[in-house]
Amino acid sequence: MTIKVILVDDHQIVRHGLRTLLELEPDMKVVAEADNGRTALNLVQELAPEVVIMDISMPGLNGIEATRQIVSGVPQVKVIALSMHSDSSYVLNMLKAGASGYLLKDCALEELVKAVHTVVNNKTYLSPGISDIVIKDFIGGWAGSGASAFAVLTPREREVLQLITEGKTTNQIADCLCVSIKTVEAHRKQVMNKLGIHSVAELTKYAIRQGLTSLES
Question: What's the number of domains the chain is made of?
């Protein structure tokens, strides 16, 4: 069986490198690339890949939220996070969103290939350093779980929060999400009330800690 893969990363050079390496594998084919989570959702629906290799920090729709929507809508698709972030908030939010694997971008190609084969066989793959993070948080309890954006906010509120922290205006957010300006304003108010945060600067700090956006995206 040929494993169809979609690559999702906002850096073209990363996607190009991954495509070149993965297509050396006789049983893998990269069928599409995306530079943001929203495009990835459309490609998954259209192409029905076995595996999506997903970056986390991307503009418009981050990898965590895109993973949640992919797994919810097309549960047979396996998502592997390939990220520069090893912080527990990123790792645990990605796994809670439904990712089947998590690797760091400094991993060897052989490890990525192994991860693809592992998740296709309905198993979870975590690189050794990531396994340590998950085990420690499981044993000690995830201190931030109660205040997690993924526990407090709805999916649409998280999307609005990300777009706010990326500097989008209310009109731009409304256009991006295909909703009215009043709806965006209502979501913004709900986000601020739920989080007890009432400035864009503090919202941005919160979103970065939660993995919804980053200074690099």
Answer: 2
Domain limits at 19?
Answer: 3-140
Any domain includes 169: yes
Tokens 């047979």 identify what position? 76
| Three-state helix/strand/coil letters over 138-154 | HHHCCCCHHHCHHHHCC
The token pair that represents 121 in the structure block: 């066989």
CA atoms within 13 A on the CB side of 141: 2
pLDDT tens for the 217 residues of the chain, in order: 899 999 999 999 999 999 999 999 999 999 999 999 999 999 999 999 999 999 998 988 999 999 999 999 999 999 999 998 888 888 888 998 999 999 998 888 889 999 999 999 999 999 887 887 777 766 555 444 445 787 789 989 999 999 998 889 999 999 999 999 999 999 999 999 999 898 888 888 888 878 788 655 4
Closest by Cα among 63, 70, 22, 12 to 46: 70
5 forms beta bridges with 30, 51
Same domain membership, residue 59 and residue 158: no
CATH code for the domain in which residue 179 is found: 1.10.10.10
Sheet strands side by side (includes 28-34): 28-34, 3-8, 51-54, 78-83, 101-104, 125-126
The answer to the question of residue 215 being in a domain is: no
Q: State the alpha helices, DSSP H only, in 48-127.
A: 63-73, 88-97, 109-120
pTM of this structure: 0.77
The answer to whether position 216 is within a domain reads: no
